[in-house]
Amino acid sequence: MSFFSESKGTASRLTGSFQNSNPKEETIKERKAKSGSGIRGYDVVKTNYTSLPVEIPEDFLQPLENPEENITVQRIEFEKTVLSEYRGAYAVVLDGVLSREECGELIRLVEMSKGGHGNLSGGGGDGDGGENENENELKAPENNGWTPAMVNAGVGYEFLSTEYRNSDRIIWDEKEVVSRLWKRVLQGKGIKEDIGVLEGKRWEGLASLRLRSGERWVSTEQGMNERMRFLRYGAGQYFREHVDGAYGKPDGSECSFFTIHLYLNDSAQELEKDPNTPKFPKDSEMLRGGATTFHSRDMKERLDVDPKVGRVLIFQHRRLLHSGDDVVSGIKYTMRSDLMFRFEDGLEGKDDVVFG
């Protein structure tokens, strides 16, 4: 059973208002031309995200005893799909990385980082720079700490643009959870070998400037950026098409080259791929829609990776045009971060690679 679905040309889809049934649908450039370049017309605000301390259970997200029985790995071979223009680009789907119970616990913990579930120890602002940002008021947060996701406008600045990005978000900087997550991901067969070290012609196209021929980048000990962006999408919400940018340290010693998505709940369309699963009724509260969709540059073809509890999607930043498709019903929970690499200057041994 395939983990993704493809559509070509004018194929009909059950993914809400954002469909490719019109061959003249606006491209990114056309949309920007209409709305104006840059961030003119938007209120740019200074942001500073902080979190409350959260006690992480010792047994939470520990390595699996038999990962080969739990985690399946399937690479997306773009050249064999309707998106053959992305030939050679790296993307991989891992299923079974987290259990349903672990995903639910992760949502609870991130909400606690904003004061949800009675975690009112003080000291965690909502990041909006408002007058209450530094006040340790012992009161439960609205919406368990979820606030509208904003768009980056430079280091420490963001703006709200719901026509482009419409969802709620919690940002959580938590090294221990990130470290455990990465160790679990590395239990997937072949992941260490695939992206533990980036060097040689295989990866020259991964970045336009940073990964030149002869350079060698190795996975950091932590693996992932400690900043986790948890996203919650309700009916009618989305993240329009874009290409992810790299995150790097100012001194150039570390840089990200890949995006990692963790899906925290199931979608109806994913479960219904199993012929033994009955169709969910239209009025069900089950999530429908919300795929991570890779698009052709002309926006006429697409490949969907549908949400599935415990599923991880890893893909390179560069070249891959993608979106968070409209949620038709239910709620979608996901977490996004970056995979971090450090530049190796040649003084260290070839075998000096840390996998966490």
UniProtKB/TrEMBL annotation:
UniProt xrefs under SMART domains: P4Hc (SM00702)
Prolyl 4-hydroxylase alpha subunit domain segment(s): 89-340
Superkingdom of the organism of origin: Eukaryota
Segments for region (Disordered): 1-34, 117-145
Composition-biased stretches (Polar residues): 1-22
Cofactor(s) the record lists: L-ascorbate
Organism of provenance: Botrytis tulipae
Keywords: Dioxygenase, Iron, Metal-binding, Oxidoreductase
Gly residues: bias regions: 117-127
Entry GO MF terms: iron ion binding; L-ascorbic acid binding; procollagen-proline 4-dioxygenase activity
Protein name: Prolyl 4-hydroxylase alpha subunit domain-containing protein
Pfam families, alphabetized: 2OG-FeII_Oxy_3 (PF13640)
One Gene Ontology cellular component annotation held by this UniProt entry: endoplasmic reticulum
